[in-house]
Amino acid sequence: MPQAPRRPEIHRAIAALQRLAEGFALRRRQLAGEAGLTEAQWRVLDEIAGEDFMPSMFARRRDCSPAAVSRSLRGLIDKGLVDASISAEDARQRDYRLTRKGRDALRRLARERERAIESVWREFDARDLEGFERFAHALADRLESYAERRRG
To answer: Which domains does the chain have, with CATH numbers?
Structure first.
């Protein structure tokens, strides 16, 4: 039977997780900055690359304000990465699409991200990654469940 962790072990694990989260956030900021974007602009650009981008739905899903999404959109339009036009289906809506420059920016970001993945992750043993994945999913499930119970 597995032994339950003690408080110091739990706190060391939490500190490691915080360090990992900060490392990911730092690298994401660096990648976005290297492409001349903010992280928020990168998220919006990525979403526009998909189908049927709607700023209000994006804001709701990302739990951010519509004003923040509008600022990101204006910045992307000003940089020439996104075009906006009146929707042919509903004149109250705008359609957003990537420009060639926007598609190129996303390709560069994807390439740089793949380089980082190759450099950082490739040397790990597959079994270690599988164990990490199982643990990370179990931890995420517990955190989400705990947050849901606290919410309601």
So the answer is: 7-121 (1.10.10.10)
